[in-house]
Design a protein that fits this description.
The complex is a heterodimer. Chain A is an alpha/beta fold. Chain A is built from 19 helices and 16 strands. In chain B, helix 6 links the parallel strand 12 and strand 13. The chains are: A alpha/beta, B alpha/beta. Bound molecules: flavin-adenine dinucleotide (FAD) and FE2/S2 (inorganic) cluster. The site of flavin-adenine dinucleotide has 41 residues of chain A, from helix 10, helix 15, helix 17, helix 18 and helix 19.
Chain lengths: 479, 282
């Protein structure tokens, strides 16, 4: 066993690149029972586990791994769910290499324990057992762990936005006995998990299960209800809600403000991914929503969003997909696994390059990108080397579709109609990090609308923390 | 008690033009003239924007007027009384700025007469002297003539073929009105892009403030995708949240017309439906 610890982690089977670029099925196929037990066996059960320090929500990682090793999968899932309401999601999309796995002691000499893959395994096993497709483990633990529910408190909370932060807050508040209504602008709950992250990375059935689970706790999810237009925060507080949690995310697409951005064939990543994922344009014409993918696609950016857009483009038939990024390979902010997958599938990186103009034809369609090359200069305030333009390096990159994936900001619909909510200079809501309390009484906030575009696990953690603070607030603020 | 989004009345206004009265109490109680909704007919349908052509907060209803053009609107128009539209989101967009401007001219082209109607009604109620100009290809495609007449001081009708009112375009009628010396303080124009552009060309020399309501492609309708963006006064605006109404003299109509054809080559349903929303000839 000590050999396998040193040698490396157990591979997770994946669809081969040549096959998966032709479909939208999940790329990574998950561990078998044997794989999982073997990988779990690599964990040396540190007395003072560093991995836990890397986890934004303090999951007892050694414990759930030990439970997997001992065949107690339901127990492992329960350990995860104590801290993480969405383990099947986070096992798939967390940047583990920046968090728990980065600190794993085995990583010092070899490969860290594949904590994310094991998390996914435990969560998937629990679901499968709950659906009866596999018998639960020996003994008769309940298949899907039912949380204990407090008796009703008679207090009502409105949660705005059904992304990871809102869903986590809703679930916790319901367990604490409060009546919870979630208001969601889109026609489906899930936030970025349904409109942004593609099916091949996060099957939508998993998101639906999580939403069903939240509903099963008594939470009402009202879709097609946009706060700021269909109603306001003040109206909610006036019409019977005792507290409000705002988890509206960072859904405002940024453009570069360069000439040609309004040409046909130029998308924001939000529009492109929403068409493909939420509206299921990848199943056009079975679904009515179209999306335009040309022969040569250029995606601008280097984060998860850019990778998702690039990989969707390949699957939708693009011949070449260039990923135009202003820094280098080492600086790509996307999850490592997705970077590797993307390049293996044929996404072509164009590093140290920035578009300065999008060129169009006489009919108003994109035909290319004028770019300049960059070189990495002095480190900036964040410690990252700042890209600086190389004079006279202008050149043309052929493209008939351009997808801008350079970041998102806060959507002002809600905040504009809630004047007493304090914002920072970029328009994000100012909220206490530990409690989510905002400048407005009874109003709490968390997730991307507070931190700026971040991660699923941080948004979920913020929702949970705010739920505890709202619970406390409701106990003190008796009418 | 009707269900949410249930069609409680369906009326045929003209060949291929249907009026739905929908049970949407929350939207009805929040709606203001100039706003719109985004609807999705069923699980596989597109999300399409449709202007709120009238609303009744007490009854909990909103009125949508839809012209069959592409697949999505054909399917939508195929719904019957008692059926539900799967999703209706709204009210979206900025309301019209209704004040007493003095004398206003409200120009509705094609199905643009539908979104024009609640604005005309509100302008009249605010004390304006209202001239309305309604245009259509022919008499049988003319809608809301009686309703519009009731909320206008004067109604001028034009048809392309002369089968009702004057033969000719709405922009020509407006030019005549201006030439006849009527002092006009503000013009509203809603209709196909080419019509709105023509109206703006007529009002530009005299500097008459002209409000247009833009009919871009949309997905979410909440400022999340940017698909509805358009250049106005040199700045990029999102029609769904910054509009749909803009100063017509600042709008890049060329870009608007090109962008509305984005999916035309793929025989897309989306653009035809949007065209249909305001009666563009496709
Ligand atoms: C394409 C893409 C890929 C990503 N990949 C990863 C990844 O691999 N790993 C990772 O950890 N993170 C990833 N992220 C980031 C992660 O998804 C977000 O940090 C996280 O979803 C934020 O959660 P949230 O609840 O704050 O907001 P969101 O998920 O954005 O949810 C906000 C919800 O609120 C709704 N809403 C907004 N305004 C209103 C309103 N006024 N009224 C009602 N409802 C409203 C929105 O429709 C939305 O459903 C990715 C993001 C994107 C866009
Ligand atoms: S329709 Fe998506 S931003 Fe306007």
């Amino acid at each position: 066993m000590s050999d396998s610890r040193k040698t490396g982690r157990v591979d997770m089977p994946r669809q081969p690149a040549s096959v998966r670029v032709r479909n939208f099925d999940e790329v990574a196929l998950g561990y078998s029972e044997e794989d999982a037990r073997r990988e779990a066996g690599r964990c040396i059960q540190c007395k003072n586990p560093l991995c836990v320090q890397g986890c934004p929500v303090d999951i007892d990682i050694p414990r759930f791994i030990l439970q997997i090793r001992e065949g107690d999968e339901a127990g492992a899932a329960a350990t995860l769910k104590l801290k993480n309401s969405l383990p099947a999601v986070c096992g798939r999309v967390c940047p583990q290499e920046e968090q728990c796995e980065k600190l794993c002691i085995l990583g010092k000499k070899g490969q860290p324990v594949a904590i994310g893959r094991l998390e996914r395994y435990a969560a998937d096993r629990e679901t499968a057992a709950g659906q009866g497709s596999r018998p639960g483990p020996a003994g008769s633990r309940p298949a899907v762990t039912r949380p204990s529910m407090a008796s009703p408190t008679g207090r009502s909370v409105a949660v705005i936005g059904a992304g990871p932060s809102g869903l986590a807050a809703a679930g916790e508040l319901a367990k604490l006995g409060h009546r919870v209504t979630v208001f969601e602008a889109l026609h489906k709950p899930g936030g970025v998990l349904v409109y942004g992250i593609p099916e091949f990375r996060l099957p939508k059935a998993i998101v639906e299960q999580e939403c069903d689970f939240i509903r099963s706790l008594g939470v009402e999810i009202r879709c097609n209800y946009v706060i700021g237009r269909s109603g306001t925060v003040d109206e909610l507080l006036r019409t019977g809600f005792d507290a409000v949690f705002v988890g509206t995310g960072a859904g405002l697409p940024y453009f570069m403000n360069i000439p040609g951005e309004n040409l046909n064939g130029v998308y924001s990543s939000n529009e492109f991914l929403t068409r493909v994922n939420l509206m299921k344009a990848y199943r056009f014409p079975e679904y009515d929503t179209p999306v335009h993918v040309g022969r040569n696609v250029a995606v601008i950016g280097g984060g998860n969003v850019a990778m998702d857009a690039a990989r969707c483009s390949l699957r939708l038939g693009a011949e070449t997909v260039h990923l135009v990024y202003r820094r280098g390979r080492e600086q790509l902010p996307a999850r490592e696994e997705e970077i590797e997958n993307a390049f293996e599938e044929g996404v072509r990186p164009v590093f140290l390059t920035v578009p300065v103009e999008i060129l169009g034809d006489e009919n108003g369609w994109v035909k290319g990108l004028e770019c300049i090359r960059m070189e990495l200069g002095e480190p900036d305030a964040s410690g990252r080397q700042k890209p600086v333009p190389v004079a006279g390096s202008n050149h043309i990159l052929e493209a008939d579709t351009v997808i801008m994936a350079i970041g998102q900001g806060p959507n002002p619909l809600l905040t504009l109609t809630t004047p007493d909510l304090k914002l920072n200079k970029w328009g994000y809501i100012v909220a206490d990090e530990a409690t989510g309390q905002t400048s407005k009484k009874g109003v709490f906030a968390g997730g991307d609308i507070v931190t700026g575009a971040a991660t699923v696990i941080l948004a979920m953690g913020a929702g949970k923390k705010a739920a505890m603070a709202i619970h406390k607030y409701l106990q003190q603020d008796r009418p | 008690m009707p269900q949410l989004n249930e069609i409680i009345r369906k009326t045929s206004l003209a060949p291929g033009i249907v009026r739905f009265d929908l049970h949407c109490p929350d939207i009805a109680s929040h709606a203001k003239p100039g706003q719109f909704v985004v609807v999705r007919r069923d699980e596989v349908a597109e999300r399409i924007p449709l202007t709120i052509a009238d609303f009744d907060a007490a009854a909990g209803t909103i009125v949508l007027i839809i012209q069959e053009a592409g697949l999505s609107t054909k399917k939508l128009c195929g719904l019957e009384r008692g059926e539900r539209v799967t999703d209706v989101l709204g009210p979206l967009g900025q309301p019209s700025e209704i004040e007493n401007y003095g004398t206003v001219v409200c120009v509705g082209g094609g199905v643009g007469a539908a979104p024009m109607y609640p604005i005309t009604k509100a302008l009249k109620a605010a004390g304006n002297r209202v001239h309305s100009i309604l245009g259509a290809r022919s008499k049988d495609l003319l809608i809301l003539e009686e309703e519009t007449r009731r909320v206008s001081d004067e109604l001028h009708v034009c048809t392309d073929d002369g089968s009702s009112g004057t033969r000719g375009f709405v922009s020509g009628k407006l030019a005549e009105l201006i030439a006849s010396g009527v002092k006009i303080d503000r013009v509203w124009a809603i209709g196909p892009g080419v019509m709105m552009r023509a109206v703006c060309d007529v009002t530009r020399p005299g500097g008459i403030p002209t409000v247009v309501s833009l009919n871009t492609l949309m997905v979410d309708g909440t400022g999340m995708c940017g698909g509805c963006r358009i250049t106005v006064g040199g700045k990029v605006k999102f029609v769904c949240v910054d509009g749909p109404e803009f100063d017509g003299h600042q709008v890049e109509f060329g870009e608007l017309l090109k962008r509305s054809r984005m999916y035309a080559d793929r025989e897309s349903r989306a653009d035809r439906d949007h065209a249909c929303r305001l009666g563009l000839k496709t």
